[in-house]
Design the sequence.
C-alpha cells in the first residue's frame, strides 16, 4: 500500500474484533485499496489498526467510512464491494432526522446506498403517493417492494399489488405462446424476483395463492378500488395518459402507492405521450405526492452499468442539441 504523504493529516482507527477487521479490510486488503483509490488517501495497516494519511477532510471521510463498514460487518457477517461503494456515496449524506431508514423484511434488512435512496425511503414512509424517477439500477422498484413487504409484515397493509404495463418494446401479447398467465409472467418476472428476495419462497407462494400479494398487468387494475394495500406500478413510462389516470384513481382508504419509471426510456408508439410524463406535470406540487429523482450517481449495480447509463445520456443530449440545426 502507498506510503503516508508528507505534511498531511493522519487519522488512526483501531478495531477490537480480529475477524470483523478482516472482513472490513477485504481479501488482500481489497476494500481498503478501493477506498484509497476513490478518496486519494493512503491506508496502512498494522494488526487491527489502520493509519489514514491524506488531506484533512478526506482522511476524516475515510475514518467515517471505516467505522460504518466495521459496524456493518459486525451486523451482517460480511462486506461486499457494493457495501464499500455505498459507504463512499453516503459519507456526506445529511444525518437522518426521522430515525432508522433500514427496511426490515423476513429475509433481509435493506439500507439506503445513496443519499437519493435515503430520500426515497423517507418519501415511501411519509407520502401516500411516491414517484421514483430515473435510470435502471438505482433501486426504485426494489426499495418500493421492500417497503411494501415490510408494511405487510408489520400489519400496516393487508395486501400488496404489483403491476406493470404488459406490452413493451413493440411486442404484443397475442403473438406469445401459452395462456394469459404464460403471456404476461415474463413482463412481471422482475417483480417476482424482488418478492423472493424479501420473503421465504413458501411464504411468497402462500400469499400469492391467498391473494395477499397480487402480481398483475396494468389492465387488471381497471374498475377496482384498492383499500388497505400497498400498490406499485413499475415501468410507468410505458403507460398512456389514460392508463396512468386509471391507475392513480384506484387508490382506496389506508392505501399507499409507489410509481416507478424512467421518463427518458419509453417503449410507447411514436407520437404517444407517456402517462408518467403527464403525471409529473399534473401532480407537481400536490400535497401528499412526492417526486424523487435518481441520476446515474445512484446506480447501485455493476460499475459498468453506471458508465453505460452515462454514455447513453451523453449521446441523447448530443442528439437533442443537433435537432434544431436540422429543422
Sequence:
Amino acid at each position: 500500500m502507498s506510503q503516508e504523504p508528507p505534511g498531511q493529516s493522519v487519522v488512526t482507527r483501531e478495531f477490537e474484533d480480529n475477524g470483523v477487521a478482516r472482513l472490513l479490510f477485504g481479501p488482500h486488503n481489497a476494500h481498503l485499496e478501493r477506498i484509497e483509490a476513490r478518496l486519494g488517501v493512503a491506508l496502512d495497516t498494522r494488526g487491527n489498526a489502520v493509519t489514514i494519511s491524506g488531506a484533512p477532510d478526506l482522511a476524516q471521510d475515510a475514518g467515517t467510512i471505516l467505522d460504518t463498514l466495521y459496524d456493518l460487518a459486525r451486523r451482517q457477517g460480511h462486506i461486499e464491494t457494493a457495501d464499500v461503494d455505498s459507504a463512499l456515496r453516503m459519507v456526506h449524506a445529511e444525518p437522518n432526522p426521522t430515525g432508522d431508514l433500514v427496511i426490515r423484511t423476513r429475509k433481509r434488512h435493506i439500507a439506503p446506498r445513496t443519499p437519493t435512496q435515503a430520500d426515497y425511503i423517507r418519501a415511501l414512509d411519509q407520502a401516500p403517493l411516491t414517484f421514483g424517477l430515473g435510470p435502471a439500477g438505482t433501486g426504485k422498484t426494489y426499495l418500493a417492494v421492500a417497503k411494501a413487504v415490510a408494511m405487510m409484515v408489520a400489519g400496516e397493509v393487508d395486501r400488496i399489488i404489483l403491476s406493470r404495463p404488459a406490452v413493451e418494446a413493440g411486442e404484443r401479447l397475442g403473438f406469445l405462446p401459452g395462456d394469459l398467465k404464460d403471456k404476461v409472467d415474463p413482463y412481471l418476472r422482475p417483480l417476482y424476483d424482488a418478492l423472493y428476495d424479501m420473503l421465504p419462497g413458501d411464504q411468497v407462494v402462500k400469499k400469492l395463492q391467498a391473494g395477499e400479494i397480487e402480481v398483475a398487468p396494468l389492465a387488471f387494475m381497471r374498475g377496482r378500488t384498492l383499500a388497505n394495500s400497498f400498490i406499485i406500478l413499475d415501468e410507468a413510462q410505458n403507460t398512456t395518459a389514460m392508463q396512468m389516470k386509471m391507475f392513480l384513481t384506484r387508490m382506496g382508504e389506508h392505501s399507499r402507492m409507489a410509481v416507478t419509471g424512467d421518463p427518458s426510456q419509453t417503449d410507447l408508439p411514436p407520437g404517444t405521450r407517456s402517462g408518467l410524463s403527464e403525471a409529473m406535470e399534473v401532480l407537481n406540487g400536490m400535497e401528499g405526492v412526492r417526486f424523487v429523482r435518481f441520476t446515474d450517481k445512484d446506480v447501485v449495480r455493476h460499475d459498468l452499468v453506471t458508465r453505460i447509463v452515462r454514455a447513453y445520456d451523453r449521446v441523447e443530449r448530443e442528439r437533442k442539441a443537433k435537432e434544431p440545426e436540422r429543422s
About this structure: The mean pLDDT is 84. The chain is about 45% helix and 15% strand. Residues 146 and 257 are 13 Å apart (CA to CA). The first strand starts at residue 9 and ends at 14.
